[in-house]
Design a protein that fits this description.
molybdenum cofactor biosynthesis; globular; molybdopterin adenylyltransferase activity; about 30% strand; ATP binding; five-stranded mixed barrel; metal ion binding
């Protein structure tokens, strides 16, 4: 198994199988709809795009800044969020970080909350909490996987 201990996406399985001399990919997705959608965006869609011969099968990843202090989970987490682009007025005469889009979480991140997925344009990749870091401060830069339109 290649996938381990991310939130939300447990339990997830990836395996290969030989069938009539051909290798088949097997994805076992979580039963929860939000977890299944997140897992599909991170693993299944890129695999299908690669098999289809797309020159860039991976999802686009961009830097975003947090709009608030964000408490970290013990596991790495993909948090659903909406991207807000800075206006041209707000980027003049300011730091380069002022030009970085802001990610606003789509509310409660429990995996049963399907509505939070429908509004999301990105999945912010948050590190696990550690003994030295339990919160990412407002303005912190994180990677975000683009999953929807802006």
């Amino acid at each position: 198994m290649c996938l381990h201990n991310l939130s939300p996406r447990k339990p997830t399985t990836f395996a290969t199988l030989e069938h009539h001399g051909r290798r088949k990919l097997i994805f076992g997705l979580p039963g929860n709809p939000v977890s299944a959608i997140v897992t599909s965006n991170l693993y299944v869609i890129p695999a299908v795009r690669k098999m289809a011969g797309c020159p860039t099968p991976e999802r686009t990843v961009m830097k975003v800044q947090l709009d608030r202090d964000t408490r970290l989970d013990p596991r790495p987490e993909y948090m659903r969020a909406v991207v807000q682009w800075p206006s041209s007025d707000s980027t003049s005469d300011q730091s380069p970080q002022a030009a970085v889009p802001v990610a606003v979480p789509t509310g409660n991140q429990i995996s049963s909350r399907l509505l939070s997925m429908s509004a999301a344009s990105v999945l912010m990749k948050l590190p696990p909490k550690s003994s030295t870091q339990t919160v990412l401060e407002k303005g912190s830069l994180v990677d975000a996987v683009v999953i929807g339109g802006f």
